[in-house]
Amino acid sequence: MVVVELFESQGCSSCPPANANVNALSTRPDLLTLIYGVTYWDQLGWTDTFARPEFTQRQRDYARGLGNDNVYTPQIVLNGRIDLVGINRGELNAAIGRAAMTAFTTRVTIAFDSVTVGAQSQAQSPADVWLVRYDPRTLNVPIRAGENNGRTLPHVHVVRSIDRLGSWDGTAHTYPLPGAQAPLRTAVLVQMPNGGPIIGAATGR
Q: What is the residue extent of each domain of the chain?
């Protein structure tokens, strides 16, 4: 699996092409696509209907982890290791191919009410375990102001929440999962701190 995270804003005129590319990838079984709305475009005429401060903070963590000077939109991050704008579909597919060459080192298993992260004999510093809830439906958003005024933008796999379940130290550990409200689906990411690489991921119901 490759985790494809898009950071975008409904008020950003450059974002719809990257959004369309990620939407088109959402049915691939070897990918987990996630769309995060960020907040820093909201003051420019349109408030993103999906944006949350914690999504903006996640992107800022990636800026530090990837060595970028600042955040930007659109930005696609692959497995926490590679980032690109993502407007060019050929470039995006090539980057996904490169990301797929680095296999996850940590096994993650999601059950009905828990998630288990398996043991890893060569674990480094403690990793973070993130619970992501996302909407699998196509959500069409009519934009009424800002740079995309008059357009209706489709979004697939919109992230509605991200919460830290705890830390993982390399030993097998099980974390309780709070119940999800339909129609949201669950993903769990095991990731090195401060916007580091994703070393394990799984999806569930």
A: 2-204
